[in-house]
Design brief:
With about 425 residues, the protein is of the alpha+beta class. It is built from eleven helices and 16 strands. The strands form six sheets. It has a four-stranded antiparallel sheet with strand order 5-6-7-8, covered by helices on one side. A three-stranded antiparallel sheet has the order 11-16-14, covered by helices on one side.
């Protein structure tokens, strides 16, 4: 709703078509001599009194004041996502006041003062209107999903700049009175405004979905290229009642690899634990905790065994528990596996992945694995961080031991 209100408001402020009302202005008194050291030329007087003000009070077909009010309401609904909307709100108020002031000015001043004040207000109105639109458009881009909505955002920004350019030129034409040319620029401006507002409305479903915990740690709705990558791979092509793509989030993180280098990682998790996931990985990153890789299981054909054998840390994968018919918490995006080779899943004499044999011995002093220092134990750094962020550890289970596995469930799941 907020985006629709803003779009209608921007339509009202962006199109400057006006008609004369039945209220006539006081007769214009031509100035005699100089005013403030300047002689008012006949052309300037004509342009102001005829083309900017007119003989009667001009009523916008799509009134600026109503547009500003709609923008203010929409911005108030979105300010929770970004405080910079407040600047747009203040500029909308200023635009509405200046627009009203310009229409009422001839009732209060006349002669040279009318010309000077009308030009000044007209200039300020143009600046405030464009600045307001710029603020609202670019703040909306910041709070919408930069990945899933990237194309729409870029088209919207580009078309808005075309609209702004045509309106600046229209303002210049107004100053010099070239109205025979102006109508073509108004037609072009109409096209640009309608096109960029269409893109704005298209972006509404992404507004507020892009969240940043810290630089390099953010979550978003699934971008189209990620959806295409997952469909038929980690996400089934046939419909299911357990989870939808709309309930999942694409999370990007930074982490240290086993060589001590910073790497970019990506996971897909349930929207309910996206914030907890970002926070946990950020805390691991700050402590330089080593994780060999963080990639989607789709890079391994959604084969959990291949992903684990590559010691890849991952989250969502619509699958059953290894060796059982029960649906895994990974299928709901509620579980995360960390360094699975060093932290295998062990149950009734079986273990996964197959290349984790050296790490079945959980005593670091007895383990012969090269990376035995990366094994997760109760009370160690990874354990404490994930526990603080609402996850339970599979190494605490009695029926099996899943040392790689951290799962959020019950009261630990937060929107």
């Amino acid at each position: 709703m907020a985006i629709f209100l803003i779009a209608i408001g921007l339509l009202f402020t962006g199109l400057d078509f006006a008609v004369a009302s039945g209220f006539s202005y006081p007769a214009y008194v031509a100035p005699q001599g100089e005013y403030m050291g300047v002689t008012m030329g006949a052309n300037i007087q004509t342009n102001v009194t005829k083309y900017i003000l007119g003989d009667h009070v001009m009523i916008d077909v799509l009134p600026d004041v109503v547009g500003c009010l709609l923008i203010i309401i929409g911005v108030l609904m979105l300010v929770k996502h970004n405080k910079k909307y407040i600047r747009g709100l203040l500029l909308a108020v200023a635009t509405g006041v200046l627009s009203s002031g310009l229409r009422l000015l001839p009732f209060f001043v006349n002669s040279a003062a009318l010309v000077v004040w009308a030009l000044a207000i007209f200039f300020l109105l143009t600046v405030c209107e464009l600045w307001m639109e710029y603020t609202v458009i670019y703040t909306t881009v910041r709070v919408s999903d930069a990945m899933a909505n990237q194309g729409t955002n870029r088209r919207m920004q580009f078309l808005w700049w075309l609209s702004a350019g045509s309106r600046i030129f229209l303002a210049a034409l107004t100053f010099v009175g070239l109205f025979s040319v102006a109508r073509w620029y108004r037609a072009a401006n109409l096209v640009f405004v309608l096109l960029y507002l269409y893109q704005l409305i298209e972006s509404r479903k992404y507004v507020g979905s892009y969240k940043v915990y810290k630089e390099g740690f953010n979550s978003a709705v699934l971008p189209n290229y990620i959806r295409e990558k997952m469909l038929g791979s980690s996400f089934p092509e046939e419909p299911n009642r357990d989870i939808s793509m709309e309930e999942l989030r694409y999370v990007r993180v930074l982490h240290y690899d086993f060589a001590g280098k910073i790497q970019e990682g990506e996971l897909v998790v349930n929207q309910k634990i996206a914030w907890q996931t970002m926070r946990a990985f950020y805390q691991l990153y700050k402590m330089e905790y080593p994780i060999q890789s963080v990639r989607l299981v789709d890079d391994y054909e959604a084969d959990d065994e291949l992903s684990m054998e590559a010691n890849n840390s991952s989250a969502f994968n619509y699958r059953k528990v290894a060796g059982r018919e029960e649906l895994s918490k990974h299928a709901l995006g509620l579980a995360i596996d960390i360094n699975p080779v060093m932290n295998p899943y062990v149950r009734e004499g079986e273990y996964f992945p197959a290349n984790a044999t050296e790490y079945l011995e959980r005593d670091a002093d007895k383990c012969t694995g090269k990376h035995r220092d990366k094994m997760i134990h109760r009370g160690d750094l990874a354990y404490r961080i994930f526990r603080r962020n609402g996850f339970e550890w599979g190494g605490d289970w009695n029926h099996a031991k899943d040392y790689q596995h951290f799962v959020a469930k019950g009261r630990n799941i937060r929107p």
